[in-house]
Amino acid sequence: MTAPARLVVGCGVGWIAAAALGLLGRHYSQGDFAVRPDRRRFLRNAMLGAVGSVLALIGAVFGWLLWPRKTGAFGGELTVSAADVPAVNAPPFRSTAGHFYLAHTADGLLAMWWKCPHLGCTVPWVGPPESPHAYQCPCHGSMYNYAGERTGGPAPRPLDLMRVTVADGGSVRVDTGAITTRTDYAPDQAAPYPA
Length: 195
Ligand code: FES
Fold this sequence. Notes:
29% of the residues lie in helices and 21% in strands. The protein has two helices and nine strands; from the N terminus they run H-H-E-E-E-E-E-E-E-E-E. The protein has helices at 3-28, 37-66, and strands at residues 77-80, 93-95, 100-105, 108-113, 135-136, 143-144, 150-152, 161-166, 172-180. Strands 1-9-8-4-3-2 form a six-stranded antiparallel sheet, with no helix packed on it. A three-stranded antiparallel sheet has the order 5-6-7, with no helix packed on it. The two termini are 25 Å apart.
């Protein structure tokens, strides 16, 4: 839910709660209610409770709205500018903040988490001409091709994928909190580029 929508929902809930408590207070303040000391005490406590509830509700809504959302770092969404999107089969864009490589296959874009599926080491791009393999893990030697498929070593699967969204203008959003595993490469894993 977007921040404006959350604000509208929060205000709506606060208004309904305040209205309900106001009606309750009016109901108990009618008739001979005001002349009885115990009822007067009850009314005062009810009003204090109502005010406290509304303040607590407002505080909760503002806390929810102002709580920092994770963006621009691993776990959140990052944007890769159109200028940084690699050409087809060119060396991938490397995001230090997002811990991923953005590769451009003939089928489209792949954002791959650089964490080795074997035991979690960071897998560097070694690409041609240094190596016939695109990525090679320094820990136990797992190797992967340009699309992240395992080509050798003990890794149990290809590099994991992150969700990619192509925006107008050619920039790309990578959701580093939306990670999926796979058993091999399939063309529909790639986001067509341009969209
Ligand atoms: S952690 Fe990468 S091959 Fe073992």
